[in-house]
Structures are given as structure tokens and as C-alpha cells.
Amino acid sequence: MHIYHYINLLIITFVSLMAGLVTLAGAKQIAPSQLEIYVQSDTLKVDVGIDSAFTQNHIDAIESGMTASITLQFRLLGARNNRLVQKEINKQLEHDIWEGQYRLIKVTVPPDTLVSSNFGDIRHACTQLQGLALTHLPLPDEILTLQARVHIDPITPKQQERTRRWLKILRKGSLLEFFFSFRKSNPPTPWITLRQFRPSALPHLLPEAAQ
Amino acid sequence: MKPFPLRWRIIGALLGLSLSTTLALSYMGRYYLDLSLQSGVNLEMGHALTGALTLAKENYDTRKHLLTEVGDILSQSPNLIAAYHANHPEQLQHLFLKEGVKDATLYFSTTAHTNASTTMPSVFKASENILQLTVPILAQDSTVAYLCAEQRLDTLLNIESAVHTFKHIEMDELDLRQAFSLAFLAATAGVVLLATLIGIRIGFGVTKPLYALIKGTREMARDNLEYRIPKGREDEIGLLIESFNKMAEDLKENRRKRLEAEQIAAWREIARRLAHEIKNPLTPIQLTVQQLRDKYPGDDPTYQKLVIDCTEIVTEEVENLRALVQEFADFARMPSLLLAPQDLNKIVLGVVRLYPDARIHHTLSPDLPILELDIEQMRRVLINLIENGIDAAGEKAQVRIQTQIDDGQICLCVSDNGPGVPMEERQRIFQPYISSKDSGMGLGLAVVRGIIEDHRGHISVTDAPNGGAQFDICLPIPEEQMDDSLKGES
């Protein structure tokens, strides 16, 4: 084999190795603790609870007063894995350690805020969704797949900047900073399949019953 | 086992050197990074920061408690109304100090923070870093203003911030190490890649001309003395190529000289034999014919005239043949040189004197060193060249003779105003039996070159400035006289 082939092989191996390392983030699996999918007022809705969304690292960070952004994503895939719908719920969890209060702000217009001194209540409010409207009917009468993933990031951009200032080695534009920022320290969980169903087989609830 | 080619060995050596150096440096870098991270992010530091945060929290609670107590006191104190009417909130500072609140900023305000109670004292966080006490000032059962006392929480927030940053680093420590590893890996790969490219450049740069040299030597071995290696480098390899090319040029020149010498020797041998074979019967022929003429006994005048005419013709032709034979003999003989110290200028002047009627101009350098020359042979050279010039230019012939020192050699230039020598004839005219003249055997310039080369000189023909031919003779100056002549030049 010609030497140039060896060099090419070396470069490809190196790039693959780096790409592998970069994508080797500690992705955590989640599992739903509660799940109901139903039709109400011609809308596909879901009641879901994902208690396992918070890791111990997340809890420690929030307990120490770090502000976390929480994103829950749902998507509905068709029979050929084609995406039919994607829905995203964004929340921000702040902890005032001085007053001992948690504040969960749902990023909507206007914002919906829940204040509590009990982390359990807040955690429940974060991960329990009731009557989440995914999409209007009709849907193709085929086997659909509902998937979800969670992204909890207790590192705000402000905190990122503060840490960079603390660690002077992470100067902007440096090689180290490039590789550091290339990796997401708190990556979203992988997509997990909550359920596969046929729309025609879903229960239909009366509007009152849902409330 | 066949060894690797040189170019791959050079590339491999550079690659190995750079790889080992970079890996060693990477290892050291990683080691010191570990040390550095361990000194900053460790269990003790975590405990210390957690403890500091607990103390900060206690401090916050204490501040809040003290402010609450001061608020209760102030709400029942007449001093509050008096200070408000005097618009002098600092009058109340001593009450704060008395309760242990040292760094409160006091002011009156007609409006209250949204978190404040409008009827009773309240303590709350007015902003992220401000703890505020608000005391309503009541007059006639209504709130007319508020006393606000603010304490900054910057120190406490700094501790909180430090804890957050510590937590962040702790969380990202693995990522940071991996980022370091990747950065080192990238740097290593970059260096290795660079070393490979440099190695290829150097390896090929060194071996390419070597392969060209190998090809050159093979061509030479195949007797191809025309092959030259293209230059293009100024380094030692370029010098080697230049030396090779010069060697090939010298070999080619030597071969040419040798061939010419062999050719001339062969011609001389032919000339010698011809001269010998022709010269011997000439005298008997001439004598016999003359005897025929002298001993004619008859009285037939017509026949007698015929005999006399024929005898004259034969005698004349015999003389011509004798002259030719002499020319052959001269060429064949070429006596060995009788070298003696001579002044070339004097030889030139001596020869010029032989042609009083011809227009011969001379420009002689006065600084010519004395040379070891065969005076007779050199005279023969000059006579040959002058006569060639006169013959070529005809009646209006002008011959110029110049001597000078040039590039460590003595140059003797003889030029004429004749038609010149065509480019394609310039090499051939020095060969025997090549002549552009009607008369002669074409041996003159061959003899001239023989004499000059016997003097270790060189002769060539070029165009004269006035359009004729110019013969340039270069004679080497002996080493011992070189310094003197250079001094003379300077």
C-alpha cells in the first residue's frame, strides 16, 4: 500500500476517534412513571410523568442554588418513522437558597410560576404533565410512536462565563476551549419510546372528564 | 532483508522523533493538569465551600432577624417620625448599630417595594443582592412614607457563586479532562501530520536528486556523455549535481580531444607515408625528364619544342608535387617543442615585420609575462593565421593582432576583415584536409591547433568585430608567474 494511504488511514482513524470521544457523553436513560394517551375534543392528549428525569448531579446543583433549565420534548412518529408532531415544554427552575424557596417558571406567555419551599413538589411539577395537547385529529390510522426526551441543564450561560473566568485555561478561541465547548456536559437524554399505539384504539374522554 | 529506501527512513525518523517528543510532552502536560485540577477541585475544597455556604446562610438569617428586630423597634419609636420630618434618616443609624446592624443604608421613600407590607415592618430581598427592611411611617392612621434600610449581600453571593462554580467544575471535570486529552491528541496529530509532511518534503527533496544522480551515472555507464542532470538547487546537492555535470562535460571534452588527437595522428601517419612514397620518385622523374630533353639528338625543331615544353610542364608539376610533399612532411613531422622563455609580443612584432606591405595592426599588452614557448612554432602559428587572413580578405585585407591578459590566461587574437567562418564550419576547420581555399591541402589550421595544444593552449574561431574571422588563442600563464602578472594588471 502506498504511504499516502497510510497517512489517510491515520487521519481518518484520528478523526473517528475524536468524534467517538466527543459523542461519548454520559447519556442517561429515562423511563415514564405514568402514561396515558387519549383523545379529547378531537385532540390527541397525553398525561405523562417522568420522575427519573433528575439525576443526583442535577439535584445537587439545584440544591446548591444553581438555576436549571428544563426542557421536555415529545414527538410523534408515523409508521415509517416520519415525524408527525414535535412538542417542547420549557421550564426554568430557580432556587433561592437564602429564602429556601424554589421557583419553577414555565416559559410561556404569560409565564406560569410555581413557588414552593418543597423540592419534591417542584420536581413533581416539573416532570408531571397532565393533558398535554400533542396534536389535533385526524391522524393516519397506522401504528404511531410517541417518544420523549428530557434535557436538564443546571449550567446557565452566565455560570459558563463565570467558570471560564475562574479557569483561566479556558480562554475563548483556545484549542482547549474548542474541545471543551464541543462537548455538552449535560446532554439531553436519548429519545425513548413511551408507547406505540393506533389512534383508532385510543380512549376518547369527554371534555369534562378531562378537567 | 532489503533495507527501506532512504526517503522512507528519513520520513520514519522524523515521524518517530516528533511522535515520541509529542507523546512525552502530552504525558507531562496531562500529569501537570491532573495535579492542577486536584489542587483546585478536591474533597477538602468542596467541604470548605459547603461550610462557607452554610455559614453564609446563617449570616443571612441573622441579618434578617436583626433587621426584623430593628424594624419592630422603629415602628414604635417616636424617633422615626422625627427623623422623617427632619428628612434625616441617618439620625436613626444609632438604633441599627445598637441592635448590631452595621452596614445598613437608610433612606425615606414614599413608595414601597412590592414585597413590602404597607402597615407593618417587613424584611425581604429587594433584589438579588439587597436585603431590605421597610418600616411604614404612619401619620393619622395612614402610611405617609417608608423608612428603607438596605444591606448588600455581595459577600454572601460571592460565596454562593464560588460554590456554583466549584459544582460546575466538579460536574465537568471529566469533560475537562477529556477536552485536555482531545486537545493534546489534536496537537499530537497536528505535529505528527506536520512531521510527516516535512519528512516527505525532506525525504523526497534529498532522494530525488540522488535518483537523478544515479540515473546520470547509469547514462554515463551506457556511454551517454550528453546526459545532464537539471540543476535548480543551490545547496550541497546542487553542488554535487554541478560537479557531476562538469565531470560529464570534461569527459566529453577529453573524449573529443582524444578522438581528434587520434585522428590527427592517423592523418600524420598517412601524410608521412604519402610524403615518403611520393617524394622518392620525384627527383628521378625530374632528372629523367631533363635528361630526355638534354639528350635529344634529333633535329626536328617541332618535336624538340614539344620535348622542351613537356619537360617544363613535368618539372613544374614535380615542383608543385614537391611543395605538397613538403607540406605533408611538415604536418607529419611536427617536431617536438623546444621551449624557452619568450616574450610573445616580440614574436608578434618579429612576424609582422615579415609583411611590410600588408596592413597589419597590432595592439599589444605591455604587461604580458614571459612564457615558455617554442619560438619557431609560434612564428609558424602567426604566419599561418596572418596568411589565412590575407588570403580570405583579398586585396583590401586588414589583419589585427591583439595580445592581452584575460581570466588568468594570455590571449592572442588574430582577426581579419574577410567573410568570416560560418558557424557550422568553426569546429571542422581545425581538422586536417578541410579548407575553404582553392590551393593547399587544408593542413595549416590543423598544424596551428596542434602547436597551440602542444603549448597546453586552446584555439577557437569567432566573429571579428569588423565582420571577419577572429582566431582566439589562449595560453595558460604558469602558476609562478600568475601572481606577478596579476600584480601588473592591478
List the helices and strands and how they pair.
The complex is a heterodimer of chains A (211) and B (490).
Chain A: H1 3-23, E1 34-40, E2 43-49, H2 56-63, E3 68-77, E4 83-96, E5 101-106, E6 112-116, H3 119-127, E7 128-136, E8 144-153, H4 157-166, H5 175-182, E9 192-197, E10 204-205, H6 207-210
Parallel strand pairs in A: 1-10
Antiparallel strand pairs in A: 1-2, 2-7, 3-4, 3-8, 4-5, 5-6, 8-9
Chain B: H1 6-40, H2 43-75, H3 78-85, H4 93-98, E1 105-109, E2 122-127, E3 130-139, E4 142-152, H5 154-221, H6 236-294, H7 301-333, E5 340-342, H8 344-352, E6 359-363, E7 371-373, H9 375-393, E8 398-406, E9 409-416, H10 444-454, E10 458-463, E11 469-476, H11 479-489
Parallel strand pairs in B: 6-8
Antiparallel strand pairs in B: 1-4, 2-3, 3-4, 5-7, 8-9, 9-11, 10-11
Helix pairs in contact in B: 1-5, 2-5, 5-6, 6-7, 8-9, 9-10
Notes on the structure:
The complex is a heterodimer of chains A (211) and B (490). Chain A has 211 residues and is an alpha+beta fold. Chain A is built from 6 helices and 10 strands; from the N terminus they run H-E-E-H-E-E-E-E-H-E-E-H-H-E-E-H. Chain A has helices spanning 3-23, 56-63, 119-127, 157-166, 175-182, 207-210, and strands at residues 34-40, 43-49, 68-77, 83-96, 101-106, 112-116, 128-136, 144-153, 192-197, 204-205. In chain A, the strands form 2 sheets. In chain A, strands 6-5-4-3-8-9 form a 6-stranded antiparallel beta sheet. Chain A has a 4-stranded mixed beta sheet with strand order 7-2-1-10. In chain A, strand 1 (34-40) and strand 2 form a beta hairpin. The longest helix of chain A has 21 residues, at 3-23. Chain A starts with a helix and ends with a helix. Chain B has 490 residues and is an alpha+beta fold. Chain B folds into 4 domains: 6-40 and 159-213; 46-152, Beta-Lactamase, CATH 3.30.450; 255-332; 340-489, Histidine kinase-like ATPase, C-terminal domain (Heat Shock Protein 90). In chain B, the strands form 3 sheets. Chain B has a 5-stranded mixed beta sheet with strand order 6-8-9-11-10, with helices on one face. In chain B, strands 1-4-3-2 form a 4-stranded antiparallel beta sheet. The two termini of chain B are 63 Å apart. The A-B interface holds A 3, 7, 10-11, 14, 17-18, 21-22, 26, 57, 60-61, 64-66, 96-99, 154-155, 159-160, 162-163, 166-167, 175-176, 178-180, 182-183, 185-186 and B 8, 11, 53, 57, 60, 125, 153, 156, 160-161, 163-165, 167-169, 171-172, 174-176, 178-183, 185-187, 189, 192-193, 196, 200.
